Amino acid sequence: MKAVYFITFFCLLLLLAASEANNRKAAAIAVPEPYHLELPPGLPAPVYDLSQNPLTKQGIALGRHLFYDPRLSRDSSISCGFCHQQFAAFGHFDHALAHGVEGRIGTRSVPTLFNLIWQKNFMWDGGVNNLEIQPLTPLTDENEMGMDLGVLVKRLQADAGYRKMFKAAYGTEEVNSQRLFRAITQFLATMISFQSKYDSVMRKAPGVAFTPEEQEGYVIFKQKCAACHKEPFFTDYSYRNNGLPYLPNLNDVGRMRITSSTGDYLKFKVPTLRNILKSSPYMHDGRFFDIYQVFNQYAHGIKPNASPTIDPLVKNGIPLSDKEQRELYMFLNTLTDPGFIANSSFSEILIQ
Amino acid sequence: MNLRNFHLYLPAACLCLLLFSGANTFHSGPMQLQFTHVVNGKPMALQTGIYTNAVGDSFNITMFKYYVSNFSLTSSNGQEVSLPPAYFLVNESDTASKTITLPPIPEGIYSSISFLIGVDSIRNMSGAQTGALDPVNGMFWTWNSGYIMAKLEGLSPVSKQPNKLIEFHIGGFQGTRNTLRRVTLTFAKPFALPQAEPVVMPIVADAYTWFGQPNTVSFQHVSSCTTPGAQAMRIADNYQHMFSIKRD
Lengths: 352, 248
Description:
heterodimer; A: mainly alpha; Cytochrome Bc1 Complex, Chain D, domain 2; B: five-stranded mixed β-sheet; MbnP-like_dom (chain B); Copper-binding protein MbnP-like domain-containing protein (chain B)
């Protein structure tokens, strides 16, 4: 009888050893290395649930590769990074409207990309409700990347390089849209911009202070802009009609298209002012190439009864003297984050 | 077996248990739903079948698919048992999709089944999904996040759309635009689970209901609905009546 126990015990040991060896073997093949995302202190918890897509070095690297790969578009001509340029804080420098495959042009300007994990909804009209699926829109829009998602998954699955990268990030070579979107999301999640001069002043970093003009500009900002462009994100993420004249050629009704509510006619997302001087042109249709045009629009361009949905805060215009405009400019300049714009971990990579 | 010597076998029994513990899934008698699609009682034939809606418009169907999810069963004593999350896209053009295997069901005697037509609001907001919920299936709106709960496309000579299209993409999951509908089907008689063989429940979905009651649709006036809103709500109110258990 003792022998039976002994043999059983031995078998159990063997089993344990075998499963242990298996685990170790798996570990040797591919275990993505966790990436710790450093969040600036004093901010609310991110909206995006990072626990459903834990960041890894390999996942972020895959996302970055996808972001800069033109093969994500139908004719392999346009990558995400084509329109989202790092030196423009991932907006599209000097382009009013988004460009796409076959020289097509969309109806809205390219938004900047940073601090996205704190954002609840995406696109100028807030039509997209989760960061992970945001790339689906430009990817499939016929005026942007014009791609069929199924075709893309097959294209990537057929590519040995991608199979290797997916394996490194996820443990197996399988490509599916969830893995694709989550990898891009991992890369986007790392794009955090809270290292501007403004941030240093707020943190009371030694030796950093606003100049008198910047300080005056900050006072004006708080009086006249901060209700919508709320600190610390410099947007309250709301949708508002800021009084811009409607352009019949673009026929963009804004958020009304999403909610079907006439109360949302001509409402667009309040954009962040961080990195604003790096990310012209301005407004949802990029109609202003210079920030002073924006100041003048608010100061002199608002027609109070142009539309029933015009926001009460801008309805009567926002008076801004030439001096105030200059000071405001100086303050906005402190919202540029040079470290973000030059951060080599976000920069374009060569796609083989 | 000599019970006095049972302890002799105990270690071996443990070993057996351990060896097979990896395969502890529910093997005995899963429940399957087998969907058949009809139009006003006639079998649905994509492209070739010609049907007439409640107001007399003739039409055919080129695409018919819908999500079912969030299953629960009610036992004969009235207790409702919610099954683990499961999402299925039933597609007329894909035979395999028309038989679905439900998640494991606890032992009991059941008298009815209930499920959602569509995808619950949480999954509409949870980012990238896989399987039946993968946006690659063409059932996810890219410009206004959310699943298309059910899709019916075809042609009707009275349609004013280009190419005489009729196009009904029903979706919307929030507030007054929530097209999710719960269906409850009562079995002919209660039955016990598990059973040795899979229980196959034949379910008929009649596309005629989409345009029938209570909100009669004329393709002359409404030949397309591809956004969340009042029209989608009316169609959902209609199609919540499309399912019945097939009785022989």
